[in-house]
């Protein structure tokens, strides 16, 4: 758009112009160009800009990364035929959420929690690349496979190819009396051939040890010979409390659904039950950032920045193009020494007119 072009030109002249970078990031996010917004927000955090805006942009960065991933997954599904014929990335592994088949609903959150723990453990091996769990979940949601077919190697192979993974891990959690059992397979995405089944079973309270056994068994199924250091890293990465893991799984489900505040509550509960549970602390911070970013609109972010960044000709022109400030002289005649832009953004006041002006300014496309 014309407004975006103004800021891009300004940044060409002054690549470190924090105002141009900030507003250009907002523009690209608003246009759905999340990958570019991510790069711009990262660039803004590298400038000398200070104050609350750095926190705002750190929050928005978490949001646009999530949105960029979802957009990428949707593009993969749309181009499935082309991607199916593309060779997978060597050494790449995708871990699917485990299907829960038990009757006790208390253990259902383990479906996502187990997948997340396996991602963390398998990632301790330098010779393989493990895709982040949310990318896998987003794909399954996009092609409506989240609740069915997760243990079918043929179905899994299709999803794995769309993810660009060479191998996928998929399996099931079942409840047998007071015990929990897990079964898992490693499936080659190019052939659909599954390796030998890896199975663990024990009392529910020993599920955390079962996860370690499962991780080691899956790596052996992939033909990975662990070094002493890798085995130690996997063994040290432990959760001490099953209830903490269940809360963590509930938090992951809420996070996947975009219920960020509920996710934060669950992750905080997991952290309180097991203060050393690092992934719960990390996810809690992510949920907080997602919640804050989702509650601040592009317009609110632009208004807030106007007070902290000040204005420059390029930013002023962008604001005029985006928010239609051409009406301002008619509605509120101003003297030659006054600049309408900072007034509307919350700088100088004009007798309480700022709120009225924001309401009636025409937006691009004819809206108000």
Tag the structure with descriptive keywords.
58% helix, 18 helices, disordered C terminus, 6 strands, 368 residues, single chain
The residue fraction in helices comes out at 55-70%
For the record, the CATH class of the domain at 87-221 is Alpha Beta
Rg over alpha carbons = 25 Å
Look up the CATH topology of the domain at 87-221: Rossmann fold
CATH level-two architecture of the domain at 87-221: 3-Layer(aba) Sandwich
Estimate what percentage of residues fall within beta strands. 5-15%
What is the molecular shape?
Answer: globular
Number of strands: 6
Tally of helical segments? 18
Mean pLDDT: 81
Largest sheet: 6 strands, mixed
Cα end-to-end separation:
18 Å
Low-confidence stretches: 325-368
Order of helices and strands: HHHHHEEHEHHEEEHHHHHHHHHH
The CATH homology group name of the domain at 87-221? ABC-type transport auxiliary lipoprotein component
Computed structural class: alpha/beta
């Amino acid at each position: 758009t014309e407004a975006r072009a103004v800021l891009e030109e300004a940044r060409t002249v002054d690549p470190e112009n924090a105002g141009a970078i900030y507003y250009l990031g907002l523009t690209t996010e608003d246009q759905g160009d999340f990958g570019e917004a991510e790069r711009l927000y990262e660039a803004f955090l590298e400038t000398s800009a200070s104050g609350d805006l750095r926190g705002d942009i750190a929050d928005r960065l978490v949001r646009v990364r999530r949105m960029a991933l979802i957009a990428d997954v949707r593009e993969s599904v749309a181009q499935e035929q082309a991607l199916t014929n593309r060779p997978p990335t060597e050494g790449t592994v995708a871990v699917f959420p485990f299907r829960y088949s038990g009757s006790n609903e208390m253990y259902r959150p383990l479906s996502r929690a187990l997948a997340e723990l396996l991602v963390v453990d398998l990632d301790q091996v330098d010779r393989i690349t493990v895709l982040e769990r949310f990318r896998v979940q987003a794909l399954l949601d996009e092609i409506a496979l989240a609740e069915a077919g997760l243990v079918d190697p043929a179905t899994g192979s299709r999803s794995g190819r769309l993810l660009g993974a060479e191998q996928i891990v998929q399996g099931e959690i079942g409840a047998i009396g007071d015990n929990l059992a897990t079964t898992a397979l490693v499936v080659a995405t190019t052939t659909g051939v599954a390796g030998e089944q890896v199975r663990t079973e024990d009392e529910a309270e020993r599920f955390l040890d079962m996860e370690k056994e499962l991780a080691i068994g899956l790596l052996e199924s992939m033909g990975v010979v662990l070094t002493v250091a890798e085995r130690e890293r996997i063994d040290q990465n432990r959760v001490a409390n099953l209830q903490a893991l269940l809360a963590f799984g509930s938090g992951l489900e809420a996070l996947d659904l975009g219920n960020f505040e509920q996710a934060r509550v669950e992750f905080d509960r997991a952290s309180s039950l097991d203060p050393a549970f690092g992934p719960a602390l990390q996810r809690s911070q992510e949920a907080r950032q997602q919640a804050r970013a989702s509650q601040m609109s592009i317009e609110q972010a632009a208004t807030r920045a106007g007070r902290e960044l000040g204005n420059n000709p390029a930013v002023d022109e962008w604001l005029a193009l985006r928010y239609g400030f051409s009406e301002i002289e008619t509605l509120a005649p101003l003297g030659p020494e006054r600049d309408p832009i900072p007034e509307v953004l919350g700088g100088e006041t004009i007798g309480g007119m700022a709120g009225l002006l924001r309401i009636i300014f025409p937006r691009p496309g004819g809206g108000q």
